[in-house]
Amino acid sequence: MNFFITLVLVFLYTSDVKAKCRFRGECIEIAGHAKPCPVDIEARPVVEGLSPADAEEIVDILTERCPSLVFDENGDKKPFNEILTCCEPVQIRKLSESLMLADGILGRCPTCLRNFARQICEMNCSPDQSRFVDVYTEVSGGVRYVNEIDYRLYEPFMLGAHASCAGVIIPQTGLPAINMMCGNAVVCDADAWFGFTGDTSSNPMAPVQVNFLRWPTPEDSMNAPAPQCNETAEGDLPCSCVDCAAMCPTGTEPVVPEICTVLDVHCVGFAVGITVFVITTIIFIILTLLEYRKLRKVETKTPLPADVQRFTVFFQNLFAKIGVFAANNPILIIMVTSWVSIGVLYGAFSLNITSNPIELWSSPVSRSREQLNYFNTRFGPFYRAAQVFLQFKGLEPFEVDNVTYGSAFRIEAIHELIKLEDEIYKIGKDDGGVSLEQVCYAPNRPRGGEQRLDQCVSMSVSVYFGQDRDNINENTYLDQIQNCLNNHYALNCLASWGGGSEPEITFGGFEGNNILSADTLLINFPITNFMLEEDLRPVLEWEQKFIDLLHDYRDNWKSDFVEVAFGTERSIEDEIRRVSVAEILPISISYIIMFIYVIIALGNVRHCKTWLLDSKIVVAAGSIVVVLLSIGCALGLMGYTGITTTLLAINVIPFFILSVGIDNVFLMVNTLHDIQNDLKSYDDYNENFSFSKKRSFVFEKMMSAVGPSIFVSSVTQITCFGIGSITNFPAVQTFAVFASFSLTFLFVFQITTVVAILSLDYKRVSQNRPDLFCCIRKKILNDDDPLNSETPYKSITKRLMKPYSKFLLNWKTKIIVAILFMLLVSTSVVLIPQVEIGLDQEMSLPTDSYVYSYLVAVSKLLRLGPPVYFVLKAGLDFSNTNHQNVICGGQLCYDDSLFTQVFLASQHSSITRISKSSNSWLDDFIDWTSLSGACCKYNTTDNGFCPSTDNSPECAFCTIGRDEWANGLRPSSEAFKRYIPFFLRDEPTPTCNKGGLASYANAVNYLLDSEGHATVRDTNFMAYHTSVSTSSDYIEAVKYGYEISDSITAAIKKRTGLDVEVFPYSIFYVYYEQYLTIWGDTFAALGYCLIGALVINLLASGFNFLTTFAVIFTAILVVINMMGVMYIWNIPLNAVSCVNLVVSIGIAVEFCSHIAYAFDSSTRPADERVQDALQKIGSTVITGITFTNIPIIVLAFSYTQVIEVFFFRMFFTLIILGFLHGMVFFPVLLSYLNNLRNK
Question: Name one GO cellular component term (predicted).
């Protein structure tokens, strides 16, 4: 019964009670706004009292703007006299004009625009106005007018209209368009969106206060349907994917492949590691069983001495002759060395030392470097950044109207920022130096025009207050900030330079999207960049004064509640230069310790009383001088050849060169000592030899014994570094070239000059003259024990070699050693895939550096990453609609267009690292040309450009021809070419917010013909990366940047048949692109190096495959274990660690090659040769290579992580692994292989 009564009442209400008008016409103008007249009448025909021409005009406007009033429910157009409205023609005209701004904001999606226009049309003109509108009137000057309206909107319409517009974006900013229409609302929901359009207090364009009421019932509210964005009205074009997610193609989500893991390690690494361990262990067990079976057999014949390879004999004879000549002519050799060194060292004065990060870490021929150069030549170098982070840890968050604000929103924080900002503006003013307006980035400044500070781009929260920055209203400042957070391009948020301050680089230190919780304010000054050094000098001067000011602020006059971090473009390079000099101290200390050790350890001192006779202080000092001369000559040669190097290389290379050089000196000295003590065992020695012949004999034997092994190890290392120099990393190239040159000079000097020094020392020792005091001569070496004064002396390490070799080469010990080392290498194989790649910038700087604090602030506090430009090379005809469609993102653009693909990538920012969709000059230009009577103006006298704000008589609105395609959606080809220069010169205004001067003046290159028609060439489209803080973040950003660009390039080829390249460019790409191929490059470099070492060892050993295999296999194990330790010790893979892995091959060969040569040249029976080699050379490996590098521990106390991680950790690991493999595993492997050959 109740239900029936309700139906009757509704029927009576809707059929017998006619709705009336609540307001109509205009009564009075107050504060520049026309106020409507209150009425209580029925709706009248809209054409009443109009001439036929005016009637036609008004109906046309209604047809375009308010079709629901013109067409009946069947879709038929009503006769003019049946079109009833509650508005007069003047109101209809103003309604249409007011919607022009909405056209520019929401017009990209016709469905959205129609929904928005529908509620305006219904409120102002609907014949049913009284059903959902209530008015409140006031009186002024005796005239009653409507000053406030309650407008009831049916909830489904309100939510549906908002949903249809929520996805529409502004191409200039990539932000939701409705953000421009939400005022200071914290959340731009339907209530905030509609509420702002009628709020006279926050929307200066609202003539009357309209209170939008979300209403639950349809009968007493405006209940028109609200189509969604993927629904298209007849005659309209569909919304694009960019503006309507429901229109986007499916299956565009990037797929991240799952990584297979077993016990938290990579499946492949685990499988390979287990396989390696099983196979190698089985092999060594079989070899052990064969050896055990051989040992159980009773030997019936004596083993024969092994023959020396003919190729080895050749090298022995060659180096024997060199040794004899150098020993017999020491003064001549030293003089020639001095002359050569002085001549080559002179080139060091021309040496180019760089600390430029790009020159250090980016190859000139790399893809990203070439693209950087391309971008710079087409669009100018990317602007420099001067940036300040003010973190307010001493201020507490606070709550206003149930909204919690972070400490950055406190008024004290904002005053602190403005105080500092004012001082920055004063830089150069008092002392007549370079000021900000002379170096700032000012895109709207006419070329050659006056330099004014208000033209400079700056981004900080003070921009949001405009002219009131020095007089902030503490009661309303939060509303103003919130308004600008929603739309930093709002009229009251624009800076004097024409743009707004991006919220994500205005505030920092917040989690997720909760910007209101920020505890950090930023100051950003983009600074003009130049390619020529002389043009850059004023910029560098201003940046230095900026840094000085911020140091003074931090140390002397900042408030206690703030922590500051700051940096400029020059900061990192300056700090690298400063730190490189500072690192000299710990490195020098380690060198001094190394020198002291060499001086003490080189001599075979028997007693304290004979210390000066047995010591080799002069030899040690001379050998060190030879090493330093080798390094100096390498620097000189690099100076002559124009090869650039770094202070880092100059600091570190001597470590490696000294370890190699001193090792060879130890080898020479110990071999001389052994020969001298065992002269009678040589068949060709005669005790009646004169001193000269005896010296020649001794040095001949010494060089024939050590020369070939020095040659093998030196040439192997030179080869390794030579191959390392072909890498794509400039820092590694210069490091490798420097090392190659140094090792080459060192090898030559050691087989000549060091031999000459040893010859002079040999003469001193033969005459019993003390070291350093050569003028004194003793007849007896030991006065207390003259009979035993000539007794041969063996060092402790030398004496330990005999029992050690017997223990090590026992078959039980060998199998344990083999299994343990195979377990070690298998574990390393498992761990290698987990090694991180990259090089965080902070590692290059000490933790007390202001730049270190700045980089930490950038990574932890900044919530928006660097801009990324998608550069489109010339080749497309932009006046062709098909070519437009492969680029634009608006209506009828292809779903794989450039703009659409970047937009889709931004929807998956956690994977693609694209934070916001790119801007699009093409979309904005199309919109600009469609805003008839609002934007484009020309000079009627010369047909030139007029700004849209110029109201002079000679400036008139353009008549822009439309293309026949898609009912005139785009400008015609002729219009495109004529008006694109106008668009790029037009400033954004309240009535024409699409002007392209501020956003696109530097983004589009075009050529003008004689008629003033433009042909667009290279262009770019700017998006933003997400916040990137770690190397992996940067690498992922680069990876997906190139993937997106490649996909766009393929789409252009598919749609147009043209090979037009699109590439991504961001300031960090030149540093991180190398990591996309770092694994392949690293293994290639190591492979080439190992091949080089293999060839050299084969040649030098006379194609002795046994020793060559043993050396190379051991070197491979060292490299694999080095990479395993890299994971354990948190050493990432990058250019520096890559070159250290190359070095590890050289060091591994150094540890093994001397033992291998001693084995190869041994004349002992085959089964004793490994023991013989170990006893001869083992002590030299310990004292000459291992102990010499112990001072490297000092680098653990370095100022920077780069030195501590990549040189202390890696070199220390390398020495330990080299020693263990060279002195433990290599003899065992050699023994197994020797037994296999002689079974």
Answer: plasma membrane
Q: Where are the alpha helices (DSSP H) in 832-885?
A: 850-861, 881-885
Q: Residue 144 CB: number of other CB atoms within 10 A? A: 14
Q: What is the pLDDT of residues 60-75, one digit of tens each?
A: 999 999 999 999 888 8
pLDDT tens per residue across span 1061-1082: 999 999 999 989 989 989 988 8
Answer positive or negative: Cα dihedral of 180, 184, 185, 191: negative
Report the DSSP pairing between strands 937-939 and 384-391.
unpaired
Going by C-alpha positions, the residue among 773, 415, 732, 764 that lies closest to residue 561 is 415
1030-1071 pLDDT per residue, tens? 889 999 999 999 999 999 999 999 999 999 999 999 999 998
Mean pLDDT of 304-327: 75
Distances (CA, A) of 561 to 413, 546, 567: 9, 22, 20
- Determine if residue 174 is left, alpha or beta; phi over 0 gives left, psi from -120 to 50 gives alpha, anything else beta: left
Which two structure tokens, joined as six digits, stand for 620?
């040690």
Sequence-distant (6+) residues with CB within 8 A of 252 are 904
Q: Is the pLDDT at 1190 greater than 80, yes or no? A: no
pLDDT value at residue 605: 60
Reported pTM: 0.83
Q: Provide Rg for the chain, Cα atoms.
A: 42
Task: Give the model's pLDDT for residue 1192.
Answer: 75
Give the residue from 576, 729, 645 showing the smallest Cα distance to 1075: 729
Contact 192, 212 (CB under 8 A): no
pLDDT one-digit tens code per residue, 401-441: 888 999 999 999 999 999 999 999 999 988 888 999 999 99
As a whole-number percent, the residues of the chain with pLDDT over 90 amount to 44
Q: How far is residue 998's CA from residue 499's CA, in Å, rounded to a whole number?
A: 7
CB atoms within 10 A of CB 872: 27
Tell whether the model's pLDDT for residue 353 goes beyond 70: yes
Q: Which two tokens stand for residue 45?
A: 């025909």
User: Could you tell me which of 361, 1142, 1214 has the C-alpha nearest to residue 721?
Assistant: 1142
Q: Which residues of 962-992 are buried (b: 16+ CB within 10 A; e: fewer)?
A: bbeeeeeebbbbebbbbbbbbbbebebbeeb
Task: List Cβ<8 Å contacts ≥24 apart for 950-954.
Answer: none
3-state SS class at 462: helix
Our CA dihedral for 129, 133, 138, 144, rounded to 10 degrees, sits at 10
User: Are 1215 and 1192 in contact, with CB atoms under 8 Å apart?
Assistant: yes
Output the CA–CA distances (angstroms, integers) from residue 58 to 69, 88, 622, in the order listed: 12, 10, 103
Other Cβ atoms less than 10 A from the Cβ of 150: the count is 15
As a whole number of angstroms, the distance between CA 933 and CA 923 comes to: 19
DSSP class per residue in 953-1022? TTEEE----B-TGGGGTSB-HHHHHHHHHHHHHPPP-SS-TT--HHHHTTTEEEEE-TTS-EEEEEEEEE
Q: What is the Cα–Cα distance from 196 to 185, expressed in whole angstroms? A: 9
Q: In what order do the strands lie in the sheet with 507-508?
A: 507-508, 520-527, 384-391, 563-567
Structural tokens at position 601:
């350890």
Is the confidence at residue 639, as pLDDT, over 50?
Answer: yes
Lowest-pLDDT choice from 85-94, 551-560, 591-600, 1051-1060: 591-600
Distance CA 843, CA 835 (A): 17
- For the stretch 745-774, pLDDT in tens is 999 998 999 999 888 888 888 877 777 666
Element (H, E) at 472: none
For residues 179 and 176, what is the distance between their CA atoms, to the nearest angstrom? 6
Q: Which two tokens stand for residue 1071?
A: 């540093």
pLDDT of residue 113: 93
H helix runs in 40-106, sequence order: 52-65, 67-70, 89-106
